[in-house]
Amino acid sequence: KVVLTTTTTTGVRRRGNARATGTTTTRGGRHMARANAPKMSPPDAKSLVDATETFIFDCDGVIWKGDSLIEGVPETLDLLRSMGKRLIFVTNNSTKSRAGYTSKFKSLGLNVGAEEIFSSSFAAAAYLESIGFKKKAYVVGETGILEELDNVGVQHIGGEADAGKQVTLKSGELMHHDEDVGAVIVGFDRNINYYKIQYATLCIRENPGCLFIATNTDAVTHLTDAQEWAGNGSMVGAIKGSTKQEPIVVGKPAAFMLDYIANKYSLRKDQICMVGDRLDTDILFGKDGGLRTMLVLSGVTTEETLKSPENDIAPDFYTDKLADLLCLKPVEA
Q1: pLDDT band for position 221 (50/70/90)?
Q2: Is 244 helix (H, G, I), strand (E, B) or coil?
Q3: Phi, psi of 154 (to 5 degrees)
Q4: What order do you get walking across the sheet with 317-319 strand by strand?
Q5: Angle at 254 between CA 251 and CA 258, to 5 degrees
Q6: Measured in Å, how far apart are the chain's first and last C-alpha atoms?
Q7: Rounded CA gap, 122 and 103, in Å?
Q8: Which Gene3D superfamilies does this UniProt record tie to the protein (predicted)?
Q9: What are the residue ranges spanned by the domains of the chain?
Q10: Cα dihedral sign, 51-55-58-60
């Protein structure tokens, strides 16, 4: 029997190697541990790749930004595959299912199979399946969650069907909700509205034992390559505020997806490297899980943020972009 673990937003696991050791500074009476992370050199790259059997890549900010492929990614993935490395792609973006992400990879010219993709929409469905969930789920989110719930046979309501619904707040108005809903899943939703917030709130507060599941709590996301946009944390925050409950988080940095992947492929975690662009999700996900970690500066995190006295999360290495691993490519005679 496979035992899969989850954490709440207030219960993210911390391991001894999750936080940086380095110079201690004082700010406002608080002691801060400055993160010490070396910039990856070619010898560092060789050592890291040699010690790694499986690479787990975040997508937004590592593979692409919005709908634009980041320079050098196809060649880097081809190089790692030619070296016999297993490649897995993990994203907190719940708007697409694995089938949807397979299509996106294909549209960008990348040959990635559905079995190599783990999205937070998949993680939400997999979590419900792992606990033998038999009730209905109410979804604040988009088609990715709905498709993944269909794949595991979980009945669902809400989602895109509630996109245009409005609340008039007339005198005496009462919103009815389905008492058979046993879980509310909150994922990124470009059509979030007051109706959805109220319906989710009623289910969580009034249906005994109703689960509150968040695909992730990311503050921002890359919907386009032009700027950052408010992330799923804003949707989850609305429901947290109205219910006064903490969600079960199934996306990064919670442990569920990593445990699922490691169990599925019988992986040793000390032979996995997590590659991401976010300190508080990707790198913390790797550190908490006992993985090697590599931060790329092609997404959210800047070198200034990494080296800030306010940051105490240190990757094993950092580099400008994933394609910096191409330094390992054999030189043709």
Answers
A1: confident
A2: coil
A3: -95, 125
A4: 117-119, 86-91, 54-58, 272-276, 292-296, 317-319
A5: 80
A6: 52
A7: 15
A8: HAD superfamily/HAD-like (3.40.50.1000)
A9: 7-92+252-328, 134-166+173-249
A10: positive
pLDDT tops 90 at residue 226: no
- Judge whether 312 is annotated as a binding position: no
Determine whether the annotation assigns residue 58 to a binding site.
yes
Q: Token pair 């394609």 is at which residue?
A: 323
Specify the pLDDT at position 26.
Answer: 42
Q: What residues are labeled active site?
A: 58, 60
Residue 157 exposed, middle or buried by CB count within 10 Å (0-12, 13-18, 19+): middle
DSSP states of 136-196 as a string?
EEEEES-HHHHHHHHHTT--EEEGGGGTT------TT------TTEEEEEE---TT--HHH
Look up tokens 């109205």; give the residue: 242
Query: What φ, ψ does residue 69 adopt, rounded to 5°?
Result: -70, 135
Judge whether 7-92+252-328 and 134-166+173-249 match in fold.
yes
Give the pLDDT of residue 33: 52
Q: Select 134-166+173-249's CATH number: 3.40.50.150, 1.10.1040.10, 3.60.20.10, 3.40.50.1000.
A: 3.40.50.1000
pTM for the model: 0.86
Residue 307 assigned ligand-binding role: no
For residue 75, what is the enclosing H or E element? helix 73-82
Q: What is the pLDDT of residues 25-66, one digit of tens each?
A: 443 443 445 568 999 999 999 999 999 999 999 999 999 998
The tens digit of pLDDT for each residue in 276-306 reads: 999 999 999 999 999 999 999 999 899 999 9
Closest by CA position to 143, among listed 106, 188, 79: 188
Does the pLDDT value for residue 242 go beyond 60? Answer: yes
Q: Look at residue 14 in the predicted model and tell me its pLDDT.
A: 35
Q: Is 277 annotated as a binding residue?
A: yes
Q: How far apart are CA 13 and CA 41, in angstroms?
A: 31
**CATH superfamily for domain 7-92+252-328:** HAD superfamily/HAD-like (3.40.50.1000)
